[in-house]
C-alpha cells in the first residue's frame, strides 16, 4: 500500500465536498435550517412541523415555501446536507497540517470526537441516518448521497489505518467510528477546554487501542 494512500482518500473526499458546497445558502434559507435544527434537537425530529418552523423564524407558514418549495422534506434534506458539509469543511481543515498517516489519523479522531460531543445535531443526524437504514424514511437520492459521503469519510480512516500498518483496517475502522459516534455516552460534553482536550486525548488512545486489537 502506498504511504500516501491517506492523501488520495482525502483528495477524493475534498472533490466530493466541493460538489456539495452549501456556502451559497441565502440568509433566509440559513435561518430556516438553523431553526429546524434547534427545534429538532429540543423537541424531537418528528415534532417539527412547517408551522413550528415558521413561528420560530417569525414568518407565515406559506412563506416557507418560497424558500423551500417542496416543504418539510426539502428542509430535512438540506439540513442534512448542510450539516455534512460543515463537518467536511472542519475535517479538511483539521487534517490540513498532518505530515504523515499517524498525524492524519489523530487529527480526524480529535475532530470527529469534538464535534460529536459539542454539537447536538451530530447525534440528531446519526439517529436519522440509522433510522433510515431500518425504516427507509429518506428519499432515495438523498440516501445515495449520504451513503456516498459516509463511505468517503470512512475511506479516509481506512487509508490512514492501512498506511499505519493495521491489518483488516476496514473492520477496525467500523469499531472506531461506532466508538466516536457514541462519544456522548462515555464522555461528558460539559467542562472547560482543558477537559475537552483530555477527553480528545482519550479518544485518540482508545482508537489506537482498537487498531492494535486482534479481531
How do the helices and strands line up, and which of them pair or pack?
Blueprint: H1 5-19, H2 27-43, H3 50-57, H4 61-67, H5 72-95, H6 101-118, H7 120-135, H8 140-163, H9 169-181, H10 193-212
Description:
With 215 residues, the protein is mostly helical. It has a single domain, classed as Orthogonal Bundle (Tetracycline Repressor, domain 2), CATH 1.10.357. It contains ten helices and no strands. The longest helix has 24 residues, at 72-95. The radius of gyration is 18 Å and the shape is globular. The model has no long low-confidence stretch (mean pLDDT 89).
Would you kindly provide a brief summary of this structure?
The chain is an all-alpha fold. It contains ten helices and no strands. It is globular.
Structural class based on helices, strands and sheet pairing = mainly alpha
**On the 0-100 scale, what is the average pLDDT?**
89
Topology as a string of helices (H) and strands (E): HHHHHHHHHH
Top-tier CATH class: Mainly Alpha
Helix content: over 70%
At the fourth level of CATH, the homologous superfamily is: Tetracycline Repressor, domain 2
CATH topology: Tetracycline Repressor, domain 2
β-strand amount: under 5%
Q: Which parts are unreliable, with pLDDT below 50 for 5 consecutive residues or more?
A: none
Number of helices: 10
When the domains are counted, the total is 1
Amino acid at each position: 500500500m502506498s504511504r500516501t494512500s491517506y492523501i488520495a482518500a482525502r483528495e477524493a473526499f475534498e472533490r466530493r465536498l466541493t460538489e456539495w458546497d452549501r456556502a451559497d445558502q441565502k440568509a433566509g434559507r440559513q435561518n430556516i435550517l438553523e431553526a429546524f435544527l434547534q427545534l429538532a434537537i429540543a423537541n424531537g425530529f418528528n415534532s417539527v412541523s412547517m408551522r413550528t418552523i415558521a413561528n420560530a423564524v417569525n414568518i407565515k407558514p406559506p412563506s416557507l415555501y418560497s424558500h423551500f418549495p417542496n416543504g418539510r422534506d426539502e428542509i430535512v434534506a438540506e439540513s442534512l446536507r448542510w450539516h455534512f458539509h460543515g463537518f467536511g469543511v472542519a475535517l479538511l481543515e483539521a487534517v490540513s497540517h498532518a505530515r504523515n498517516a499517524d498525524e492524519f489519523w489523530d487529527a480526524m479522531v480529535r475532530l470527529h470526537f469534538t464535534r460529536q460531543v459539542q454539537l447536538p445535531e451530530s447525534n440528531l443526524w446519526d439517529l436519522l441516518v440509522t433510522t433510515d437504514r431500518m425504516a427507509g424514511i429518506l428519499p432515495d437520492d438523498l440516501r445515495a448521497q449520504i451513503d456516498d459521503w459516509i463511505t468517503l469519510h470512512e475511506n479516509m480512516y481506512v487509508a490512514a489505518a492501512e498506511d499505519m500498518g493495521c491489518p483488516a483496517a476496514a473492520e477496525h475502522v467500523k469499531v472506531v467510528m461506532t466508538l466516536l459516534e457514541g462519544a456522548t455516552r462515555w464522555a461528558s460534553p460539559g467542562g472547560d477546554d482543558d477537559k475537552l482536550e483530555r477527553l480528545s486525548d482519550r479518544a485518540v488512545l482508545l482508537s489506537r487501542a482498537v487498531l492494535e486489537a486482534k479481531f
